[in-house]
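# step 3/5: fold
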Amino acid sequence: MAGTSTNHQPPTTNHAKGSQLFDPQSKAIGPTDPRLGLRIPIIVLISVLIGARGPNREILKRCLQGKYRPLISNILFFEYEDTCNRKQILESCPLTDWEVRELLDAFYSVCHWVSIHYPWRPDSQDEGDNFLIELALAGNASAVVTNNVGDFRNMDLYFPGLRMVTPDQLLKMTTWG
């Protein structure tokens, strides 16, 4: 991995319940810190497309303003494209097709594209969660934004410095620590 560096420490076994992996108060880092790489869930984009107000819209706004650095990979790009262009999503969307395309293009333009070179396999019950951790580690992320924090509690590996936070938790943080 020439040219790639991470500040993550090697994983350890996750025996401690309530470890810092799930503690948004751990490891002080401000939300505008350039190290704040985030894996943005597809629900954030869907919520914005169908006109829902709330934390998801604010997260996307902050990404577009450069306050957060969303991570993306080729696999995640195709997931976003497939999901956001589904007929039932577009029919629920108050935006025109052109506006949807512009919004997605604007989002992609602020994303940090990441190549995953090493499969960590933290042994989550959901294979998709394993991919999210790999993307976060490869992109040197500080957090994974998810509505399913509980899905990450029983992984066999623990990654110091990487936190799982809900959209609401992320927005409530002015500094982490």
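# step 4/5: annotate
The CA atoms of residues 52 and 88 lie 15 Å apart.
# step 5/5: archive (pending)
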